Amino acid sequence: MRPDPKLVAKLGEYGTATIHEAAGQIGALPGNIKPVSSNMKLCGVVYPLHCLSRSNINLHEAIYKAETSDVLVASVDNYAQAGYWGDILTCAAQERDLSGLVIDACVRDADDIDALGFPVFARGLNITGTGKARGGSIGEPIIIGDVVINAGDVIVGDRDGVVVIPGNRVIDVIDASQEREDKEQDVRNRLKRGETSINIYKFP
Predict the structure, then answer these.
(1) What is the C-alpha separation between 183 and 195, in angstroms, rounded?
(2) Number of separate domains in the chain
(3) Is the pLDDT reported for residue 1 higher than 90?
(4) pLDDT given at position 155
(5) Each residue's pLDDT tens digit, 112-140
(6) Helices then strands (H, E): number in the chain?
(7) Measuring CA to CA, which of 93, 147, 175, 197 is 20 to 30 A from 87?
(8) 8 Å CB contact between 101 and 93
(9) Which domain, by its residues, includes 25?
(10) Angle at 114 (CA atoms; ends 112, 117), nearest 5 degrees
(11) 164: domain CATH number?
(12) How far apart are alpha carbons 57 and 30 in whole angstroms?
């Protein structure tokens, strides 16, 4: 089952660090997966895929199998240092109204991606090309870092990083994120009144 789009959008209003903490410190992808441009943000329902080493054919196919507004989330076999995604795939994804890409590998054509305004989160940039060897998976569960990622999960990305929340936990995590935001706002208010963080948090 896909989560309600309104709930997905609501979760995306919170920062990734807040969501991760509110969810019980789950779902954080490796810290080296960052936006191609620092102002990029993404939020959407996951469409997972797994690519063979130095092959991006599954990215091409996933664009046309994912549903509108989905975020492609890709793991890669043992070789991150290639440009698995570039300007052509970005144009194709935009034509399908997808919401972004998260890939545990590198991409290329960063300036073009930035100009197109399509959110891409990757390990880095690399100009090395890829082939079209068949294999891997499309639409099946994947693992990035220590996080198991399923179709229908919700993914949020910002400058701090990327977090994945199971689709059936979205409402609970929204509530917990708002509670955390409220508590932190109270702390900020108390700091402005002259209290110290050490006293507020009662550190020994």
Answers:
(1) 15
(2) 1
(3) no
(4) 98
(5) 999 999 999 999 999 999 999 999 999 99
(6) 7, 12
(7) 147
(8) yes
(9) 5-200
(10) 110
(11) 3.50.30.40
(12) 24
